[in-house]
Design goal:
Shape: elongated
Number of helices: 6
Number of strands: 0
Order of helices and strands: HHHHHH
Strand content: under 5%
């Protein structure tokens, strides 16, 4: 009788673990399924993402002018990266995006991106330093690339 209770408890524990695993997998599939059901939302995401890509591409054309006028590069780069991340937030939903961005394993990259973004604005608009603009833009790019790789 005691062995039967232990076996029943282990079976219930295994069933709960399997149920939790399926729920997590289902939530991931639900997001993919939502994309398949809403082509309009996917098209809006693609449009925002491409706008961000175009802004970043334009900013790279001003990279040789960084010592002369860092504002053109930095502002286009910052707006492009914000637009790209905004497209991911639009696709996932703002609450889900921020919940994912604030997860423990992603927090260092979230901080890296935030410091890079704010630092880029500071270095460009206030300090007017091409060296700091380059450093903060690099931090921003690292954070952006990590986010895009982890969300896609």
């Amino acid at each position: 009788a005691e062995n039967a209770k232990i076996a029943q408890q282990k079976a219930a524990l295994a069933a709960n673990s399997a149920k939790d695993g399926l729920a997590k997998a289902g939530s991931g599939l639900g997001g993919i399924g939502a994309l398949a059901m809403s082509p309009v939302k996917l098209a809006q995401f693609a449009g925002l993402f491409m706008l961000g890509f175009i802004l970043i591409s334009l900013s790279l054309s001003f990279l040789p002018l960084l010592p002369i006028n860092p504002a053109k590069f930095a502002l286009l780069f910052a707006l492009g990266s914000l637009t790209m991340l905004g497209s991911v937030a639009f696709l996932r939903g703002p609450q889900a995006f921020f919940a994912i961005a604030l997860q423990r394993e992603k927090l260092p990259f979230s901080v890296c991106y935030g410091v890079g973004l704010l630092g880029t604005f500071w270095a460009t608009l206030i300090a007017r330093s091409y060296l700091f603009t380059g450093i903060f833009a690099f931090l921003q790019a690292v954070g952006l690339l990590y986010f895009l790789a982890s969300f896609v």
